[in-house]
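Before relying on records like the one below, remember that each one covers exactly one chain. Contacts with other chains, cofactors or solvent are not represented anywhere in the record.
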Amino acid sequence: MVNYEILHMGSDCTGPYMVTFSKPMTVGKFIEEVLTTFPNEWGFIDVFLPKTFSGEKVYHCEYKYGQIISSNIDTDILAKEIKDVKGRGGWTKSDYDVYI
């Protein structure tokens, strides 16, 4: 189960929120969760790999209304376990930064 908690609300009714899991979750399962739980939303899911000699690698997924619009997330990245997620948004737009 995924829990979404709004941390504070800005004057434009948007803000950051904390995303926590009741058990370990993979990147692929999290994307599936977002698409099915919030079918009327749109936004971006960015996946960050730990820093290496070449810097931080970022994968991008754009979604809209329960569908993936575009994604460059490799299959092996979808199977990786998530360490942390930062969320932000409001109304119908939600963006997520996923750290593995």
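The chain has a mean pLDDT of 88.
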